[in-house]
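[[Encoded backbone]]
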Amino acid sequence: MDIIYASLHRRQQAAPEPAAEVAEVLGALWAHATPGDGLEHVTGRPEADRIDLLMYLATATATRPVADAPCRAEALLTRCHDASPLLRRRYLPPRTATA
C-alpha cells in the first residue's frame, strides 16, 4: 500500500468549515474514484487554509500493474475537483507536480 499526503487549499483563508467538510470531501473523492486509482482508504483533516488528505492506494503487483501512486493521487484529485461544484467553489485547483 502506498500512502500519499495531499492538500486542497481554500480559495479564501478562513476557519475550517463545519465537521461535515471532511465527509463532503471524502465523499466526493470516493464518488469520482475509479478502479485504476487503487484508492483503498482516505482520511482528512481541515486546517485554516486547506484540507489535508492521506490517501492509501493499492501498490502495483505482477497481476495488477498500476501507474505511479503520486500520479494516480494527482489524477484523482484533479478529476474530483473538476467534477464537483462544491470542491470548485471551496478549494483552488490541485497543484500539479510540475507546477
Summary: The CA atoms of residues 2 and 69 lie 7 Å apart. The chain has a mean pLDDT of 85.
